[in-house]
Amino acid sequence: MRKLGHQKHYYLMLLPGMVWLVMFSIVPMFGILMAFQNYNPGMGLLKSEWVGLENFKYMFQLNDSKTVITNTLIIAVGKIVLNLIVPLVFAILLNELRNLRYKKLVQTVVYLPHFLSWVIMSTIVIGIFGYYGVVNTVFGYFGVDPQLFMADAGIFRQLIVGTDVWKEFGYNAIIYLAALTGVNPNLYEAAAIDGANRWQLIRHVTLPALTTTVVLLGVLSLGSVLNAGFDQVYNLYNPLVYSTGDILDTWVYRLGLQNLQFSLATAAGLFKSVISFVLIYISYRLAYRYADYTIF
Amino acid sequence: MVRNTTLGSRAFDIANIILLGLLVISCIYPLWYTFCVSISEKSAANAGLVTLYPIGFSLTPYKEIINDSMFFNAFWISIQRTVLGTGFALLMTVLMAYPLARPQKDFKTRNIFMWILVFCMLFSGGLIPWYLTIQNYHLIDSIWALVLGGGVPVFDVILIMNFFRNLPKELNEAAVVDGAGPWSVLFRVYIPCSIPVLAAVALFISVYHWNEFFNGLVLSNTQSSYPLQTYIQQLVVNIPVGTNLTPEQYKKLSELSNRTLNSAKVFIAMVPMLIVYPFLQKYFVSGIMLGAVKE
Prior knowledge:
heterodimer; A: 296 residues; B: mainly alpha; 2 domains; globular; transmembrane helix (chain A); cell membrane (chain A); transmembrane (chain A); membrane (chain A); transport (chain A)
């Protein structure tokens, strides 16, 4: 009885956070109705004309939408795959280091780029790959003419995926390294006594210890296939690379906040939100079924 | 550990040390390069002559920044939003995590709240409805748009909640037997037991606030309400939007940018992060692992 008396305190504790949640997450959800209207800011949500699915039909008729969806998928899937594999290889190599101080040094340095914003990082990336950047300076030593890397639609996606992997590989390796600390050193010893060489130790002891983590992370990243990374692309792209670099999020931003096509932008945003939500739901179910993973 | 000293194994070790060394250089060099450009002679930097070390020496960009009131204004806004945003979010997060960490028999409606939170974490109304909502609250150009606009950090609530749930039940029971109510249990027992986790979460939230530029961009109508990252984003990456940009024009635009000054600004914006990085490092590894904690 006494414990149930605590409930009003629990509600009181939840109150400020719930008000915050309602104001900035739940109220905006009603704005989704705009996607089914020809929204007019002067008339508001209640009086604007209802158009059913017109905005969605129009959106898919636009050539831009096909380009943008393709780009988003290619960039996001590229990032997902490489952000699983590169940190995995890195963690295994780090695990093979025998000098512990060197290991610590490597770890300290490679985590750093994760904590710098894409605003800072893209400035640096442009400083390096830009027309007056260091890559062109070095090309100059070999008599190669300076290249406009940042304005080359042919390499933009590779550049985006590559710089993202570079920025995050250290940080993404943390979870693998943690899994490796759980490996019993006796396993290595026993295998070595049985005559296993270096490669066989990695193949039969290190890798199996990481399989569950890789699979789990892979499944959970399913929800990101429409997330190509707004901050990064927005800070690195320019009109010359729209054909390969424009993604859903940047498109929604330009449609909505620069061209003020509120309804169309909301429809495009809703398309992304719904698909991502379904994919995340599926990934959580899979992770729960096969790895016993729950978020709460 | 058994040492494997065949020739192949030794060669692998050496190759491995070199490869990881190159990765380390790849992470440090870009920062070093930015610093070098910022203190180089302007003409050398603009001609793209800097590679491994500064060419010439000039502190002119840093002197210009000292006299740039917009830069300091943006810096100050970033500090305010980081301090207010982190403090506020941390308090709300802890207050939400505690009741949600109660078993359902103690808090009947727990699961309903839980589902609402998870739904809000996974689904959003999208950019435009969010922007129009904040505009309706008349928060544009206000520091509160930056402090509150990002919404409840639901993931952090769940993280702290999971940590609370893994604390021994006896802690709670003993305190209740001694006559403590929920508020004193939370503030006198649970919070003191969770300092490392709360530190990790506080650091994550403050890194978010310090690095965030987009809300600063769309929720500000005037340049004087930009936080630092938005200010830098505007001056460095300011390429006009329009579909008829030619490569020639793009080249011209790169020529126009003041490389030494921009590098100096970027470098100064990095300094606070470099200063807190050692503290961050102490806590973020444990923070990440908490995300993986289950019952």
